[in-house]
Amino acid sequence: MKQIQVGIIGFGTVGSGLAQTLYEQKDRLRRKVGTDVILTQVADIMTDSLPEQFSGVKLTKDAKDLFTNPDIDIVVELIGGMEPARTFMLEAIKHGKHVVTANKALLSVHGREIFEAAVANNVEVGFEASVGGGIPVIKSLKEGLVANRINSIMGIMNGTANYILTRMTDHGVPFNEVLKDAQELGFAEADPTYDVEGIDTAHKLAILMTIAYGKHVHLDDINTEGITNIKPIDIDFAKEFGCRIKLLAISRNHGEHVEARVHPTMVPDSHMLASINGAYNAIHFNGDTVGNVLFYGLGAGMMPTGSAVAADVVDIGRNILCNSVNRVPALSYLPENIGTPKITDMSELTCPYYFRITALDKPGVLATIAGIFSKHDISIKSVIQKSRHEHDAVSIVFLSHVANEAAVQESIAEIDSLEMCTKPTVKIRILTEDE
Ligand code: HSE
User: Fold this and answer.
1) 217 C-alpha vs ligand 1 centroid, how far in Å?
2) What DSSP state is assigned to residue 229?
3) CATH, domain 4-134+302-337, list 2.30.40.10, 3.40.50.2300, 3.10.129.10, 3.40.50.720
4) Topology of domain 346-430, per CATH?
5) Which residues pair with 358 in a beta bridge?
6) Which of 97, 104, 204, 215 is flagged as catalytic?
7) Active-site residue 204, yes or no?
8) Are 207 and 260 spatial neighbours (Cβ–Cβ below 8 Å)?
9) Segment 274-301, tens digit of pLDDT
10) Ligand 1 in contact with 299 (CB < 6 A)?
11) pTM
C-alpha cells in the first residue's frame, strides 16, 4: 500500500516533536492507518545533521526541495512567523502538496489567502496545533460540533500568560521573574510580547471564530489587551473578592454581529475557568444543540504540539488513501459559504467592572469619584480603600454592577483628569458566574 510521506520545514521544538512522534508511534499508526506514515525529508537552515534514528531522512537547507520532491505528500510548516512561512505554504500548495501548520500568527492574518489557494489546488490545510497545542479543539469544532450554532467561545489560550498569572496569584512571584521561568520552560513565544500582550491569544481566537461562525476573522478584528498592567495589588484585591485574574479570549455570537475580545478578566473562584492553572489551556464552547463543552489540556510544548500536528498528518493521510481529500472542508463551512464578520463594537459591551483608582487621601475624593460614576449611570456594588501608601496616594477599588463599556471609558477619562488622581485608573472586566 502507498506510504504517506511527510516533509517538515523547520526542525525546532515542534518539528522535532513531530519527528519523534511519527518515529515512536510508527507501529501504532500503521495499525490505525493501514500503511506507514513516514518522515521523508527535513528542511532547516540551522541543522547540519539529524538525530541517529532519522538517519534515513533527507536533510536540506532549501525548503523548495520538499515542494519538488515527488514522494512527499504533506509539507509541514513549522518555522513560525509571517515570511518566509507564508511563501512556503503557498508554494507547497501550488506544487499540489497538502500542508500542515502550527502557525497561528500566519493563519490569523493570511489565512484567507492560504485557504483559498488550497481550495484552488484541491489540497488540504491542517492546523490543529495552531490553537490549544495538544488539545484537539479544531477537529472537535469542525466535526464533533458540526451540528451546532456556536453561541459563544471562551477560553484561556495562552499557557505563558496563564502560568505568569498563576504564579503571581499563588506564590506572589513578580511578573518579570515568572516570565523568565516561562521562557526557560520553553512555552513562551520567541517574542514573549505576543504572550503577555494578548496577541497570541488573539491569533487563536481569530482562528476559532472563523471556524465557529463561517466568517473570515482577521487578527485586526480582535480587541486585544494584555496582562502587563496587572499588578500584584490587583491580584490581591481579586482574591478578596473571591476571584482570580485570567487572560481570557471571549466571543459571543449575537447573530448580526459577534464579540471578539481578549483581555484580563476577573473570574469568580466558582467558575470552571478559575481552576485552569499553570501552563494549561481550556476552551469552552456553548452550542445550541450540545450546550456547554469544555476542552482542557496542554496548550504548548514539544510533544503536545507534536501530537496535534501528527493528528493532522494522519487525517490527511487517511483522506489520501480513501480518495476523500477535502471530505471535511478546512474551515468546516464550504468555502463558498464563508463570509465577512461584523464585530461588535467594544462600546456596546456590558459587564461588571473592577476599577482601581489611585488618588490622594483627602476629604471629598470618594464622593467626587462616586459622583462621576453615578453621572454615567454606573451603579457601584462595593468599595474598598486600603491605606497602602504610595507617597500620599491610596488605592480605592470599586466594583460595579453590570455597566456599559462606553460609559466606563467616559468615566475613567473624567476620573483620570482629576488633579486628586495621581495614576491612570486600572479597569478589569468581571465574568459573571453564569457565563
Ligand atoms: N506561547 C504559546 C503559549 C505557545 O504560551 O501558550 C502555544 O501557542
Assistant:
1) 20
2) T
3) 3.40.50.720
4) Alpha-Beta Plaits (3.30.70)
5) 395, 423
6) 204
7) yes
8) no
9) 999 999 999 999 999 999 999 999 998 8
10) yes
11) 0.96
